[in-house]
């Protein structure tokens, strides 16, 4: 026999779970995206074409602060051509907002690279916007835009 009090408590418990489950899922997705963002940063520093390819959608749109836009193949080729190497890349103050199967990632990029031709060091100070999209259980980079600071 169920009384009103028991019914009310069980309804309240189910309601609490309904509100908690999406929050936990968003948190798990945010964690997964954060791991992918860090893997991307490390792949950029290492100039690792296989790692970069695995992190990006085939339809990637990669925009530089100069306004140049590259597709996936061009981005990977240019990022790994050996004309320069990253000495450091820091993603400062990252924010991640998951909206359904999409994640909006923003951060302040501080980087330094060395040009192979003359050894010249170049610093970059940018604001980055990345859009990641969930593909099955995997998050992949769909687009990236950079603005000089």
From TrEMBL:
InterPro entries found in the cross-reference section: DUF4440, NTF2-like_dom_sf
Q: Which superkingdom does the taxonomy of this entry point to?
A: Bacteria
Q: Where is the DUF4440 domain?
A: 34-141
Q: Which one Pfam family would you cite for this protein?
A: DUF4440
The record lists the organism as: Bradyrhizobium frederickii
Q: Which interval of the chain is the signal sequence?
A: 1-25
* Protein name per Swiss-Prot or TrEMBL: Nuclear transport factor 2 family protein
**Entry keywords, A to Z:** Signal
